[in-house]
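User: Hey, my collaborator sent me this sequence without any context and asked if I could get a structure. I don't really work with proteins. Can you help?
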Amino acid sequence: MKRYIEIQIGLLIFIFLGILIIINLIFSRHRLRFDLTATKRYSLSAQTIKVLKNLKRPVKVIGFFATGAERDKAKELLEEYSYQSSKFKYTFIDPDRHPLEAKRYGITTYNTIVISCGEKEEKVSSTTEEAITNALIRVTRPGKKTIYFLSGHGEHPIDDIGKDGYSQIKEALSKQGYEIKDLSLFQTGKVPKDAATLIVAGPKKSLLSGEIKALSNYLNNKGRLILLLDPESGSEFYPILKEMGVKLGKDMIIDKMSSLFGGDYLMPVVVRYNSSHPVTKDFKLACFFIMARSVWPSNKVEGNIGVETLAWTGRSSWAETDLSALKRGSVGFDEKRDRPGPISVATVSTKGDSRLVVFGDSDFISNTYLGLSGNKDLFLNTINWLTEEKDLIAIPPKEIKGTPLILTKNQAKIIFWLPVVIIPGLIFVFGIVVYSRRKRL
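Assistant: No problem. I've predicted the 3D structure and written it out in structure-token form, which is a compact way to encode the shape of the chain:
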């Protein structure tokens, strides 16, 4: 009899283990997840789930994180993405242990996520659902948008690999899926209809009145324009700037803080950003401009124009107005003529669907200086904001609410006695009964 019971028990254990194995196999292929939090803290938004369900091609995601809380947070979020789509695959790389991989992807800061699909690639420095989903939309969007660089006035050539060329920023934009072209308004007379953005990069010769009119018409017709204007140039753009509420300084920025970074006083350090604008939101990298001028919002803005500064230099800088003295090597702050820092060096203006961004320097994205700290990231952020479409989404952050559990005196006693005393006691008694019966057999 004893032998028979042992066989039955062994058979039941075998069946139980078999059931567990089958259940494990089922759930390994068909995962089930439940979010029981009140604010659905661990669930993706309906917009993100829709994007993931409609993925047609595989998406590769690499998180460059060192071990720590930020990596755990990113992994938790990316796991939700991969749960919704088998085409979304992610992995993590420690940039300290694998510096060659970090260099291969152009990683300059920790906690950067690289999202790629085919030849398109996006970098995300914010571990939020909104940032990751919008990058996912951009890399999976079919077709290419065209960015034009104006030529014919001594601008930085986009194919020049020399120190003043723009070949590296052209390559960076191409990696993000943009098509890059030169534009000569001498030949076309107008900006092409397929222009997602037009960039005027440091012209050394003045544009003709007909070209300025073509740029004005483009901007007023929902155009997206970037002006990179060095000191002592660009006076022909004053009518466009005035119409968009932007002022261009007749000065050059001096910054003594630059010496701390190995530069000279004509290389102002940009350390403060507009945290409320999409271009510079969560942007924390220092940028280095080279022989820059001030650009700031006008106090007299009419109509539906919105103008705001994107970036400022530090408090140790000032806008030097005596350029002739500066050329002679005489540098000094004159409180009657010069403006003290912080100095605005980048300004954005919107008028309906038209968008204008003005930088007081064109050299900061040249081949020589593009790799300095956040220079490339700042410019790419600007391009992505200018060229975004309506399918990019806004997802508010999940609110984490505390839900305290308030117990009565009797409820507290039950919670203590039930799991701590009663249940363990019942298990102990049950074990004694089973042992006694088996001993009798």
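In plain terms: The domain at 46-138 is CATH 3.40.30.10 (Glutaredoxin). You can pass these tokens on to your collaborator as they are.
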